[in-house]
Amino acid sequence: MAQQADIQSTDTEEHIVLDADTRASVKRSWASQVIYFLRRWPLIPLIIMITLLIAGVFAPQVSPADPIEQSLSFRNYPPTWGAARPEFNTVPDPADYDLTITKERSAYNRAKKQAFPRTKYVLGADNLGRDVLSRVVHGARISLKVTAYALTSGIIVGSLMGIAAGYFGGWTDELLMRFVDIFLALPFILIALVIAQLFLTSGGAAEGVVILLIALVAWTPFVRQVRADVLTIRGQEYVQAAKIAGASPIRIVLKHILPGTYSTILVVASLRVGQLILTESTLSFLGAGIPDPIPAWGKSVADGRQFIEEAWWISFWPGFAIFLVVMALNFFGDWLRDRLDPRLRQLD
Fold first, then answer.
1. What are the helix (H) ranges across 26-128?
2. For 237-251, b where at least 16 C-beta lie within 10 A, e where not — what string?
3. What pLDDT score does 135 carry?
4. Angle at alpha carbon of residue 340, lines to 335 and 341, rounded to 5°
5. How many Cβ atoms are within 10 Å of 170's Cβ, its own excluded?
6. Is the dihedral of CA 93, 96, 101, 103 positive or negative?
7. What does the pLDDT read at residue 7?
8. What is the rounded distance in angstroms from the CA atom of residue 257 to the CA atom of residue 207?
9. Measured between alpha carbons, how far is 246 from 164 in angstroms, rounded to an integer?
10. Using CA atoms, how far apart are residues 304 and 66, in angstroms rounded to an integer?
11. CA distance 43 to 31
C-alpha cells in the first residue's frame, strides 16, 4: 500500500510538473498579451487622467484660443478638425473696406471669417463664437479645482468622523451614523439650487459657493468605509496591547488605527472624484454651478442644448470629456481596490 501511494504521489508530481511546463511553453499571441496587459494595468485610464491633469494645470498654454473670447461671425461654426487651409492665412485689413456700406461690411466679415489659423475651431464654435476646444480644456481646470477643494475637505471631515464613530462606539457611533443617514436622506439637488440662487442674487462668490455645495456631499462615503475599517482594527492584538501599555486614545488612533485606513481612504477618494465631477457638471448644467463667462463642462453642455440639431458639437465634446474622465476614474478606482485588497485580486 505504501509503495502504491508513493507511485501515485510521484505520478501526480510529474503530472503537475508537465502541466506547468506545458503552460510555460505555450506563448500568448500578441493580441492576447496586449489585452492581458490592459486588464492587469490601467494604462488607458492613466493616460486619460494624465491628460486631464495636464489640461487642467497648463490650460492657458494648451488651449489654442481664449475660452471667453466671442466672435459672433463664427457662431455655431462647424469643426475644422485642424485641416490645413492656406487660403485662410491672410488677415483682412479694415482699411481696405468701407465699413459704412453694408456690402463692404459683409465682404469684410467674410474675409475675416477666413482669416483664423489652423488651430482655431478644431472642434467648432459655440453659439457665441467661442472656441469649443479651448472651453473644454479650461473646463478641465475648473473641474479639477472645484473637485480638489471639495475632496480634500471630504477626506478630512469624513475620515475623522469615521474614526471617532468606530473607535469610541456607543452613543458617539450612534449619533454620527444617524447624522449621516439624515444627511443622505436630504434632496441635495433641490437644496443646492436654493442655496446657489440665494448667494447669486445677493452678489456672493459663485465659485466658492459651488465648492461649498460639493464639499457637503464629498464626506459621506468616507465615514462609513473608515468606520468599518476601524471596527476591525480596534479588535486587533496590537491595539489591545497598546491600550494595556497605557497609550492614550490619540496615540492609538494616530500610530495604530489611522495607518490601517490609508488604503480604504485612497480607494474611496479615487472613486469619489468622478462622482464629484458629475455633481459639479450637474449643478452647472442646471444653472446652480459655475456661471458665465467661466468655462465649465456642465455649463457648456447646457449652452448647446438649444442648438443640438444644427450644432451638435457644442454639447457633445464637453459631455464626451465628462464621460471619459468619469469612466477612467471609475476603472482606476476599481483597479486600485483590487490591488490594495488581496481578497479581491482576480487578475493574477
1. 30-40, 43-57, 59-62, 102-113
2. eebeebeeeebeeee
3. 93
4. 100
5. 8
6. negative
7. 46
8. 36
9. 19
10. 19
11. 16
How many other C-beta atoms lie within 10 A of the C-beta of residue 44?
Answer: 14
Burial of 55 (0-12, 13-18, 19+ CB in 10 A): buried
Q: Hey, is 125 helix, strand or coil? A: strand
The pLDDT score that the predictor gives to residue 20 is: 44
Q: What is the pLDDT of residue 171?
A: 92
Name all domains of the chain by residue range, CATH numbers in brackets.
48-73+126-344 (1.10.3720.10)
Give the integer Cα–Cα distance in Å for 282 and 290. Answer: 10
3 state DSSP class of 221? helix
CA-closest candidate to residue 302, choices 72, 134, 135, 64: 135
Alpha-carbon distance 158 to 139, whole Å?
27
Distance between CA 263 and CA 107 in Å, rounded? Answer: 64
DSSP state of 257: I
Q: How far apart are CA 278 and CA 295, in angstroms?
A: 15
pLDDT tens-digit series, residues 155-189: 999 999 999 999 998 899 999 999 999 998 988 88
Q: How many residues does the chain have?
A: 348
Cell numbers placing 70: 466671442
What's the pLDDT score for residue 122? 87
User: Would you tell me how many other CB atoms lie within 10 Å of the CB of residue 149?
Assistant: 18
Residue 268, CA distances (Å) to 49, 226, 257, 335 in order: 17, 10, 17, 12
| Nearest alpha-carbon partner for 314 in 116, 74, 138, 124 | 124
pTM exceeding 0.90 = no
For residues 59 and 24, give the distance between their C-alpha atoms in angstroms, rounded to a whole number.
48
The ranges of the chain with pLDDT < 50 are 1-9, 12-25, 87, 202-204, 347-348
How is residue 116 annotated by DSSP? -
| pLDDT for the residue 200 | 65
